[in-house]
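Re: weekly structure request thread

Next one in the queue (206 aa):
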Amino acid sequence: MGLEFIAIWIAWILAGGSPGPATMGIAGTAMTAGRASALAFAIGILAGSASWGIAAALGLSAIMLTHVWVFEIIRYAGATYLAWLAFKALKSAYAGGDAAAGTPFKGSARALFLKGAAIHITNPKAILSWGSIYAIALPADAAPPMVFQCFGLLYAGSIMIFIGYAFLFSNPRIVAVYGRARRWFDLAFAGFFGFASFKILTARLQ
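Done, posted below.
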């Protein structure tokens, strides 16, 4: 793995750090519920991502594509979940007062972990993304140790992004900015979650 993989790794980090359900969920949780809650939520997201990453490394993405009904169930569950999050954020935006965009992401550490995991587990495109990155980064005859080395390096990038978001958006200055522009943040969250739901619902998995 040389310069070409470094370029792929950087692209992976940039893609992971771009606005989306996972990053916006962590940001909302950090700003409204604090760093500890955001870390629990982020670890849940990382667990969901690891599940799909390992499944793809084991070749399960190809197997699952032959059973489209599995993807369809996950697809509709994921789209429904994200649509619900969009509704909650939109409701918060118009409620005013002390309502917060992170309302869906409050609770015990265990509950936050499960909610974070649900964002990735209910997104069938996640396993396809892992499968695609393996296909790009690895030779066709890559041995299992090389595949899992690739997984480890890519996953390290995901850890940097998601844990970094938890620390960044729990910064008091950013929380203060959020407090002054909460409604606009809520509308942005609603837009991101709603768009993600639409994309999953209309995605072609084959």
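Residues 27 and 69 are 33 Å apart (CA to CA). The mean pLDDT is 79.
Next request, please.
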